[in-house]
Amino acid sequence: MGKYPVSPLAPAAFPALPVIEGVAFATIAAGVRYAGRTDVMLARLAPGTTIAGVFTRSSTRAAPVLDCQAKIGGDSDAGAAIIVNSGNANAFTGRSGIDATRAVTRAVAAELGLPETRVFSSSTGVIGEKLPAGRITDKVHDLSAALDPGKIAEAAQAIMTTDTFPKGASAQVELGGKTVQIAGFAKGSGMIEPDMGTMLVYIFTDAKVARPLLQQMVSELSDRSFNCITVDSDTSTSDTLLVAATGTSGAAVTSTEGPFRDALHSVMLDLAHQVVRDGEGATKFVEIEVTGATSDQEARIHGKSIANSPLVKTAIAGEDPNWGRVVMAIGKSGAEADRDLITIRFGEVLVAEKGWVADSYREADGANYMKGQNLKIAVDLGLGSGSATVWTCDLTHQYITINADYRS
Amino acid sequence: MGKYPVSPLAPAAFPALPVIEGVAFATIAAGVRYAGRTDVMLARLAPGTTIAGVFTRSSTRAAPVLDCQAKIGGDSDAGAAIIVNSGNANAFTGRSGIDATRAVTRAVAAELGLPETRVFSSSTGVIGEKLPAGRITDKVHDLSAALDPGKIAEAAQAIMTTDTFPKGASAQVELGGKTVQIAGFAKGSGMIEPDMGTMLVYIFTDAKVARPLLQQMVSELSDRSFNCITVDSDTSTSDTLLVAATGTSGAAVTSTEGPFRDALHSVMLDLAHQVVRDGEGATKFVEIEVTGATSDQEARIHGKSIANSPLVKTAIAGEDPNWGRVVMAIGKSGAEADRDLITIRFGEVLVAEKGWVADSYREADGANYMKGQNLKIAVDLGLGSGSATVWTCDLTHQYITINADYRS
Question: What's the pTM?
Answer without folding.
Answer: 0.87
